[in-house]
Every structure is written in structure tokens, then in C-alpha cells.
Amino acid sequence: MSDAPRRRFPIGLTVASGVSLVILLGLGTWQMQRLAWKQDLIARLETLKTAQPKPIDEVLARAKRGETVDWVRVAAVCEQPIPARPDHVRNAVREGQIVWRVTSLCPLPAASPYREILVDRGLVANASGKVETPTVALAPVGAVVGVLAPAATLSKDAAALLPDGAPSLILMAERETPQPVEVVAAPLPPNLTNRHLEYALTWYGLAGALVAVYAALVRRRMKA
């Protein structure tokens, strides 16, 4: 009577399970990193509610030195552009609805570390939910108070509007003097949610389930 054939270790299953495990753990870790980023952002936005504006030249000088100046409230007085430059209207999504945002260039005084900065002046009034691009013609930006936001985190379209030599920041206007009636200021993200811990636990839970299923399959195969 011959011995029963020895079961081979499931190399293919092991490799596939290992790759899947690495991916699931990586996604969980990425969500934990996003959790830390979102917590920091929420804390900064909470601080902004009572922060007084700082002179933009002072803040941009810090940016020029490589310091992070995201989500800082600033005040600026724009020089009048010669010739006047057209505004740019781009679509975005706010609270699940299509909106149209207006951006204009703000030429800065000669003493400023940068020549100009891009200003998001807010949402086109009465255009939310509309598919067609609205037509607006605003006066150049005068005095403006707003929040500096990193251009890359807003949208690729917004970042593409940055002029050469300008900081990678967009001044999200909270109020202007004079205030254009054609737009409604909308500087900060509304109702930020933070579900990254929930997402991370989901990915880690799937990783744990994968390990349990893999172990059960290998045990059954080796005993068969």
C-alpha cells in the first residue's frame, strides 16, 4: 500500500493573497494619513473663524522663504491692471451642486515679494445649478480680505490659471471694497466631514478577513 500523495504548498494562492494584503494595508495607511491631514485642516479652519487678517506682503514674504502659509487670513490692496485683464469663470461642485466661480488677477505693489496673486471672488449670483457658463464683467479687484488656500487642492483648473512667477496660492475672497453685486463670497469649504478613520478601519478589516480566509484555505488544503 503506497503513501498518500503529499499536498503541495499553494504558491499561487499565497502570492495573490500577499499582493492583495499589501494593497489593502496600503489603502488603510493612506486613509490614516488623510485622517491626520483632515484633522489639521479642520483645526485650521476653526481657528480662521476668529483670526484677524494679516498684511499680504508679510505673509507672502514667509511663503517666499519656503514657509507654509496655507489657510491664513490676509488683507490686500490690488493695483489697477493696465490693460484690464478679463475674469475667468470656471465650474465647481459645492454641496453637491454645480456652481460657477469667478477668478481675477490682483496686481500687488512693487514692494511685494510677488507681482500678483490670483483671487477667487466667489460664486456667480443666481447661477448655481446651471449648465451654461454665465457671462460676468466685474470691476478689477480693489481692497480684498480673504484666506490663502493652496491652489492644487482646489482644482486643476484653478491651478492652471496661476500666472508665471505667482505663488501657488489662491486668495479666496471673503469681502471686497467695493463689493461686486454679481458674485457671492464663498471662501471656505462648507460642512467638512472626516470619515477617514471609518475608511481606514474598513480597509484594515478587509485585510484581516483576507488573512483569515487564506489561513483557512491553506489549512484545509494541507490536511486534505
UniProtKB/TrEMBL annotation:
Cellular compartment(s): Cell membrane; Membrane
Q: How does it sit in the membrane?
A: Multi-pass membrane protein
Q: Which PROSITE patterns match?
A: SURF1
Annotated TM spans: 12-30, 201-218
Keywords annotated in UniProt = Cell membrane, Membrane, Transmembrane, Transmembrane helix
Write down the InterPro entries for this protein, in alphabetical order. Answer: Surf1/Shy1, Surf1/Surf4
Q: Name one GO cellular component term.
A: plasma membrane
> What does the similarity note say?
Belongs to the SURF1 family.
Q: What is this protein called?
A: SURF1-like protein
**What organism is the protein native to?**
Caulobacter mirabilis
